[in-house]
Each structure stands twice: as structure tokens, then as C-alpha cells.
Amino acid sequence: MTDFLRTTARVALLAAGLVAGAAGSTFAQLGVGRPVARQIVDGIIVKVDNQIVLRSDVEFAYLQEQARAEGKALPPDLKCQILQGIVLNKLLLAKAETDSVVVEDSRVRDELDRRMNYFIQQIGSEKKLEEYYNKPVRQLKEELRTQVREQLITQKMQDEISGKVTVTPREVRQFFGRMPKDSLPYYSTEVEIGQIVKLAKTNSKAKQETMAKLNDIRARIVGGEDFATLAKQYSEDPGSAKEGGYLGFFKRKELVPEYEAAALRLEPGGISPVVESQFGFHVIQLIERKGDSYSTRHILLKPAAATADVSEAGQELAKLRNRILGDSISFAKAAKDFSDDKFTGASGGLLQNRQDGGSFLPLDKLDPAIFFTIDTMKVGSITPPLPYRTDDGKDAVRIIWLKSNTPPHQANLKDDYQKIAQAALNEKKNKALDDWFLRNRGSVFIEVDPEYTGCKLLDAVN
């Protein structure tokens, strides 16, 4: 790990949540494609008020760093760096609890969905993900829920401490000047890619046909046929269909409003009328209420977009492309204003590098469909509308913009200013977090196992 990369390590750990609550988490293993073997003698090594740090938290994060390093030497104090980052996370969580800092259930749900879609994309399909872990998606989500909530709370606390920190061009140059020339990172070919997505709007006829089919299924259930059996046969929600439509327990506001409202109007065992949500049409059975939670099963049918619907979306996108090419609107503004992919739309259409949050993507890590699309494109060009299917299975079209293509090179200010500026900003944010840690470490109870006193956890986080 170079000094340049080391300056980003703690912020990356905090933002990505790679170590907070990682022990025992199924999804902590997904970041490297396949689980890392974890034969670790476990135990509590640090207590921060009601928060604990396990030995396996540190060891597992260290194994992940080893896997990413691909044989390169790691810093001798990396385990201490990792532990320091975890302790800072735990202090942030402890202070959030005393300060009553919370995140909305809807935000947790959206982040769960985003990560799940990413994991499914990485492994190939929802079915492969479930087969790999031998668990339905709903169970994997439940195992991840607490960890995601803690990570979002930690991020919220971090943003309050260092969110307004900025760097000047002079500070960026000074930061780069301090980097040892023989340790500058070497970058392979990287590209910046933008997309604008339009979903195919399902026409009323397709919706009516789907509702009629689902009403027939509902009538069979009311007539005495088994809900679970029909869910396995007809439901188009692959995560729950194999479980007979069972979704498990959710708290209020964790499911889409239309679904929740219909479910909570029922008595246990009751069957809802056909309900429409953003995912399609549902028939719902309420199974049980337990305090503020409830469990249901459902059958989901999705209206299929006709060829004409996809063609209409393509025509709309083609007009937008012509406006961009005619310089009447920039690609970034068009993405923000018109793209149906709100995640990339918010960043001006640019796809995000999941490793560092930036817009530069290693060419050899691209999705094959995008790789072969841009392979012969010139920088600045935009494809015609291309049909594709979104991560959640919706028919759509998109245009793809090749913003930049940077050949392999050693880091320099001209080509890599954005990355270097981000590293300089991370260093400055780390300093703000260090200062906060020093001011607040005495406000909570912290106990460190003697084995780790050499890490000097109660000093500034180095």
C-alpha cells in the first residue's frame, strides 16, 4: 500500500463500512467476490460504552486487505490502522446514541436495495447469489440490515464532523509534493462513462391483463387453494417465490407504502385485493402482527413492456440525445433532469467506482456489456439508444457517453488531479476526525485488551 493510498484508508473504511460490524456478516465477504476463510479464535478486544470490537473484526478486515494487495507488501502496522478505524467508528456510534442521532427506515431500505442490486450484479444474478449463500435474498437482507443502519449512522456523524472540510488547489499541490516519487501509484487504463436511462412505460392494456390474471389467482386462493403453492408457481418475485411468497417480518415504513397500507388493513390470514406498487401488482396475505412488526406473503406479477413501449422510450431518448449533440443541453444536466436512474442521474450520469467513489473506472473491471459498447467509441461520443434490462428486471433503454479514456500512467497532477485532490481532502478529513476523537474519547468508557495496547488506541488515530 503506497503512502498515497494509506491517506485514504480510514475514510474509505468509514464510508464503505468494510469493518464496522463485519464479524459474522455475510455481506462483508461479498466485497472481494468470494468469502475469505475465517478460522479465527474470537473474543472481545475493545469496549466503547455498549459497543464492542471483536478480534475477528480486525482479522477479517486484514484478510480482505491481503486479498486486495495481491501479494504486495502491506504496512507493518496495518492491523493497528484497522483497529483504530473500528474504534473511531464505535465511538461515533456511541456518541450518536447519546446524542439521539438516527437515520430514517426508508434510507436504510434504499441502501439495502442498492447494495443488494450491486451484489447481484457482481455475482451474475439473484439466483446465483441465493445459491452461493444457500439463503433467500430476504434473509440476506435481514442479516445486513443492522450493519447498514450502523454504517449510515456512522456516516451521518462523520459528515457532521468533517462534511464541510474542503481543500484548495494549493493544498492539493502541496499534498502531491509530499508524496515520495518512488511510491506514486501506477494506473491502468481508466475511463469515465455516463449513461441516461429511460424505463419503458407499461401501457394500460398490459396492466389490465396483469391485474386480471392476478385477480384469477386471488379467486383461486379465496376458493381454497394454497397461497404458498400458487406463489411458488406464479410469483415473479424470485426472492420470495421459492418460499411460498413469504417475506418475513418488517417494521412500519420499511416496505413501500401501498404494500404496507394494504397489509395492515387485513386481519391475520386475510387476503388483500390486487394492489399496485412500483414493483408491479401484488396479492398479499397477512400472517402475523408482532408489536410494531408484521409478516406477510405475497404473489407479485409484473406487466411486461411491449415492444412498442420500449420503442417509445427509445424515441424519447433519441430526441434527448439530439439535443445533447446539438449543444442545447449538456449530458450532465440531461442526466440529472431526465434519467430514470436517479443514482447515476444525481452525478450527471457518471457511473461510480465502488472502490473509491470516484468516476474513473478501470477498463478491465467494466461490465462486459459496457466494455464491448465503448471498445470502439471515440472520447466524447454518445451511443444511440440501446435496449437493456435494469438490475431489478425492468425493460429500459439507455445512451452511453464516453467522457474520457486515460492510458496507463504513473500518477501526476495533470491527469489525476481529481484523485489526488480527493486523497488530500481525505487526509484533511482524517485530521478533523482525529481532533474530534481526542476531544471526545474521555466522554465514553473505553477498555482495550492488553494485547492491543501497543496500538495506542487512546492517542490520536494515526
Automatic annotation (TrEMBL):
One of its GO terms (molecular function) is peptidyl-prolyl cis-trans isomerase activity. Gene3D superfamilies: 3.10.50.40, Porin chaperone SurA, peptide-binding domain. Residues 1-28 form the signal peptide. Residues 188-288, 291-401 form the PpiC domain. Pfam families: Rotamase, SurA_N_3. Keywords: Isomerase, Rotamase, Signal. This is Peptidylprolyl isomerase. It comes from Hymenobacter lutimineralis.
